[in-house]
Amino acid sequence: MKQMHNIQDEVRDVSIPAAGVAFENEFMSRSLEQQIAHCDHYELAKYFRERLPEHQPILEAGCGSGRWVAWFVKNGWQAAGLDWSEACCVRARQEIPGARFEVGDMRDMPFGDSEFGAIVSLGAVEHCPEGPMLSLREYYRVLRPGGIAIVTVPYLGLARRCERVLNALKNTLSRNPLLRRLLGKQLAIRTFSEAQRETLRGYAADFMFAERGWDFYQYNFSKMQMRAFLQEAGFAIVDEFVEFGDEGILHNFGRVAGAYDYERGVVSLSTIGKALRGLLPVDLIGHMLYYLVRKDIQNEKNV
Fold it and tell me: In which element (H, E) is residue 98 found?
């Protein structure tokens, strides 16, 4: 039975986020079989094989299409997935026998205390406007003593910082209601200022224009910021590195650097992109921060 736990005494927004709708549309537009086939050449697949414990149940928090849950089951793990998208979970249940899928919120998961030996969270916690702490504390709660979590988040490295500065003026103009009216663009029911008020101050937040207007999309975190969140949640950091250099080139330099090949599930870099990839270190341009953390029971009284 799920025990009471102290997360945060605040009212949560249970509405479906615009980012979630966009992800659901993307996942449901492509066959699950194709998505699962791409897992073997994913950059972190080798780390999963090396780091995830055997004979321990694994939870993927924010599992999306369920492809990684399927991959875990295929490779001999007992696995479950959690996602807010009912459509994705229904399809996953139909196409992935032997796995468990639950519809729910990472910030208040429908699992018991110490139910899993490992958690995998790939690009998930950054999509909560109040920050990642609610989700990270839930990860800590449902992990067994000594259990591990693999967490990735968008990396606020030097290249992304520069890209954000260069795009600041364009973003400001695109959010101006008068300019949008003059250009014949759709006006926002929900203003950018209203969306911004929901986010943490001092953090690099991205926003998107959706059906109801401006909506929060995600945070980009520095190493210092993410370390602080993980340690506050009670985790001991075992490993940290920047990964996904090809994706970083694409995200930071745009179409001139290449495009994403959805058929093969990889980034296809242009000549310019390949040159940049060879010149720039991954710590400068990497797309995601990777963390391996452990449930440190010595810190449990502080969580």
Answer: none
Strands 116-122 and 58-61: parallel
pLDDT for 194: 87
Domains delineated in the chain: 18-155+221-244+287-302 (3.40.50.150), 159-217 (no CATH)
3-state secondary structure of 99: coil
- Report how far apart, in Å, the C-alpha atoms of 30 and of each of 33, 151, 263 are: 9, 25, 10
| 280 vs 221: CA distance, rounded Å | 20
* Structural tokens at position 222: 């520095």
d(CA 168, CA 174): 10
Q: Please list the rounded mean pLDDT of every run of 10 residues in the chain (303 residues).
A: 36 57 89 92 92 95 96 95 95 94 95 97 95 97 97 96 86 71 70 89 91 89 98 97 94 92 89 95 95 82 49
Q: How far apart are the first and last CA of the chain?
A: 20
pTM: 0.88
